[in-house]
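Here is the promised in-class demo. Please do not try to memorize the tokens; focus on the logic of going from shape to residues.
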């Protein structure tokens, strides 16, 4: 289930066949609804998401050397990732607006990849997985935007460029002390 819009922390991946009564974002008549988390206890929560953008090796070298004409790719992507985390509730319809207490971003440059890991922390009634995913995908999109002139081929296409393997790699919650 997802971060700011979840209703259940059971860890179920939704693969089980559920009756309409089991769906947390649908009322009895099948209408979409936001889950009421008002009665849930506040807990300390953390979610970490990771994803990769595949680029040409020359592009990764230019990112590493801070030689992209638009400016600092990783610094700009970091700002974009953090901004996306803070605005997830505005772009994912069933997410609650949650108090973000911390965002960490980490970039790892490979030969033909840039990997971004985004860790989000909150104290509240619902998780922050969607915020971590939103930060990761937006951060990677910013990398793409910053390097697109280096990635384009003669036809203006991006045959080498792809965002891949975006996933939640950690989700924890603990009672407040």
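The designed amino acids, position by position:
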């Amino acid at each position: 289930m997802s971060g700011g819009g979840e209703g259940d922390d059971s860890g179920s991946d939704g693969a089980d066949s559920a009756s309409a009564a089991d769906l947390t974002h649908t009322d009895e008549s099948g209408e979409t609804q936001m889950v009421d988390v008002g009665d849930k206890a506040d807990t300390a929560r953390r979610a970490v998401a990771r994803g990769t953008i595949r680029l040409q090796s020359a592009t990764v070298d230019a990112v590493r050397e801070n030689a992209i004409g638009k400016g600092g790719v990783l610094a700009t992507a970091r700002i974009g990732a953090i901004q996306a985390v803070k605005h997830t509730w505005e772009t994912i319809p069933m997410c609650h607006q949650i108090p973000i207490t911390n965002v960490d971003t980490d970039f790892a440059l490979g030969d033909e990849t840039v990997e971004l890991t985004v860790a989000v922390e909150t104290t509240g009634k619902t998780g922050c997985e969607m915020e971590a995913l939103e930060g990761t995908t937006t951060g990677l999109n910013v990398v793409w935007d910053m390097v697109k002139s280096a990635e384009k081929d003669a036809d203006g296409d991006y045959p080498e460029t792809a965002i891949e393997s975006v996933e939640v790699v950690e989700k924890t919650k603990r009672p407040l002390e």
